[in-house]
UniProtKB/TrEMBL annotation:
The keyword Manganese applies. It comes from Rossellomorea vietnamensis. Keywords: Hydrolase, Manganese, Metal-binding, Polyamine biosynthesis, Putrescine biosynthesis, Spermidine biosynthesis. Binds 2 manganese ions per subunit. NCBIfam families: agmatinase. Mn(2+) binds at residues 112, 135, 137, 139, 216, 218. It catalyses: agmatine + H2O = urea + putrescine. Belongs to the arginase family. Agmatinase subfamily. GO terms for molecular function: agmatinase activity; metal ion binding. GO terms for biological process: putrescine biosynthetic process from arginine, via agmatine; spermidine biosynthetic process. Catalyzes the formation of putrescine from agmatine. This is Agmatinase. Its EC number is 3.5.3.11. It is an enzyme of class 3 (hydrolase).
Amino acid sequence: MRFDEAYSGNVFIKSHPSYEDSQVVLYGMPMDWTVSYRPGSRFGPARIREVSIGLEEYSAYLDRELEEVKYYDAGDIPLPFGNPQRSIDMIEDYIDGLLGDGKIPFGMGGEHLVSWPVMKAIAKKYPDLAIIHMDAHTDLREEYEGEPLSHSTPIRKIAEHIGPKNVYSFGIRSGMKEEFQWAKENGMHISKFEVLEPLKEILPQLAGRPVYVTIDIDVLDPAHAPGTGTVDCGGITSKELLASIHAIAHSDVNVVGADLVEVAPIYDPSEQTANTASKLIREMLLGWVK
């Protein structure tokens, strides 16, 4: 279950040496074939791993160390360049395999379309699945300029697949008027602009349910994460996003998978974005894997 041929050799800090003995599998989805503005997120997973060496293994927020969580960094899925449909199929097949082995998938993107096949695969195992989505953008389009396979469509796809009332979006500040109208008419939850407070209100409603969490790094204001494909001003701070991750950790929801997407290192020579993403993943692992 490791992609040695396509893998650079770096692993996320404190990765467990054994796939078989691990509870969580961390993996990369290096795809940016459908982006509508700035490509480069296919390089995100590798750089997030590389900068993780600068992390402390201990979380002062959660009073846990990475060695307490058995997670295995499987490397990047070797996705075929320029082929969205084949890439999506490969991701879904891979997640099917992880779930069949009893693993919890934690993914790194890549553009946001990569979340769609993961959520679809997880919904097969958990029919009562709920989605928590943190993002600057609605991602509720049916297509983008005639193309249904687009990074602007994954939340619409999963909402239609499991029912809009099971999808909860936070931090949204950009999208077509029709997208917001569709969400309202179909009972989908959208919290504009903010994440933490509306999330804390929703979490008790999801107690006991299997939940998949997908985080687009552009939910952060560009001041906190300039290295992404579609920056959008007016976002939340990294402190609020960390607090939101911890709110989920302290809730009674059952996180059955997660991803962090849209880190594009080329647009951030300071590496602030990659380092932030790396710390977020540490807190997700320590907070959501019981």
